[in-house]
Prior knowledge:
Elements: H1 17-22, E1 31-36, E2 39-44, H2 49-52, H3 66-82
Antiparallel strand pairs: 1-2
Amino acid sequence: xxxxxxxxxxxxxxxxxxxxxxxxxxxxxxxxxxxxxxxxxxxxxxxxxxxxxxxxxxxxxxxxxxxxxxxxxxxxxxxxxxxxxxxxxxx
Length: 91
């Protein structure tokens, strides 16, 4: 799916309606922005953390630090959005 938005003079973007509908975005929902290989990736933050707690079971290596979690999320976003890992290899 392709969609386009224009950056305003105030640095604002309007997410196209079909994209908002596809992602179930509502006014007030937060979007986390990440730059990966010069691509802007927006990830909706419209789930509560409690909705995700325990979904994967216990981590095999024990609890992860916030830095490890952030790195894993960046890697997953890059793989999903760009079809490759951060090293540039195909998944």
